[in-house]
Amino acid sequence: MSDIHSKSHHLYTISDLINWQPPHYTSIIHSGILNVKNRMLIFGDEGSWKSILVLHTAHSIARGSRWLGFDTTACNVLRLQAELPMYIDRERTVKYCNGSKSIYLAQNTSNELDAQNIGNELDKRATTYSYPSNIINRTEQFIHIDESSGWESLRQDIENCIIHLPNAPLVVILDPLFKIFNRNLNEETDLKPLLDKIDLIMEDTKHTPGLSFIIVHHTRKSITDEKGSVIALGSQDATGSRALVRWCDTILRVDPDSTDKTLTKVRMTFTKHRNAEDVLPRLTVRWDRTTLHPKILFRVMPKQESEDELDSRGDSDLVQLE
Fold first, then answer.
1. Structure pTM?
2. Of 9, 119, 158, 229, whose CB has the highest number of CB atoms within 10 Å?
3. Burial of 175 (0-12, 13-18, 19+ CB in 10 A)
4. Mean pLDDT of 118-136
């Protein structure tokens, strides 16, 4: 340890940095999409399946399963859902969990499972996988976390999760931002204090092994050119002040496919990926209405001229769903 670091622990020489041991947990959604102490924004228009994507994200992170083709590290999740009545959120959650179990059994059943005891063991594993106990859900339609009482309530929830859940990073999901923010989202002076509070709570050393935030947001009114065609502005199409876009480490934009008559096909684009280890693909996903799980139809790298469709065995094939 250098003399300057021993006197001021926030100052590091090169030698101090080399000798410093990073935390055991650093990556949550791999490829740099979501790390510990990172902020992610998911935004999209009506009909883009955002709420189901957020449900899928929470469960994928909690169980450490694949998320849109990316590996994850199993973490705890606190999900604050402020848009839907609790009975609707419950119905969707139960449907999703039942779908998870059907998919797990379809992917893991083999011809060797004739013995009843093996089948029972598989069913137990499927149940544990599909109904994770490390997701904490809160439905609250009248909470404003930009006000002192609302923020204190959320902070207490975070503290309780850290105390009572397994020793792992905690991902806090706020869905959606406009419902839990009472001031003007278009004004940086209104928004910035909340972003600072989130940064401060992520940096709090007692919150080990670390916090991350995923915020769900909406698309602003579209801008069109002189011919009436929509002009896509990437992350700037998110509603509100650009301070939010600058603050986030990763931004995923979700758009419904206007040509899809089933209303289940969406396009997903990473419009910002500050910590990504490589270029991230553009995704086209179809949601299964029965299981509420996604099937990836396309993964296209930027600058690629055409979409190479993945091997398809039918939209209802459970083995292909995540």
1. 0.86
2. 158
3. buried
4. 91
